Amino acid sequence: MSIHLTDSAADRVRQHLVKRGKGLGLRLGVRKTGCSGFAYVIDYADEAGAADLVFEERGVKVFVDPDSLPLIDGTTVDFVRQGLNEAFRFQNPNVTGECGCGESFNV
Known about the structure:
Elements: E1 4-5, H1 7-20, E2 25-33, E3 37-45, E4 53-57, E5 60-64, H2 69-72, E6 76-82, E7 85-91, E8 97-98, E9 105-106
Parallel strand pairs: 1-6, 2-5
Antiparallel strand pairs: 2-3, 4-5, 6-7, 8-9
């Protein structure tokens, strides 16, 4: 089981942790929502939960709750800039479909 970060995503997380002045790493999970069933939840982790699984990629810790991991196992998180827009993007090998707006997915 694993979560991967591109260089761009790892750099972005490190920059924001320094800017925030606190944090252990990135928290990644999913929640039920949207027209396709699940949406990614991404935040900064200020503490580790007792059941969290922790992955380290490119010097950045990624915290995942055990319920989310089967849905995002093997996912690569990238950070992209397109013009004035910038966002984390997910390449999840478990996805079998996405909604038209790209905000939710199913497995």
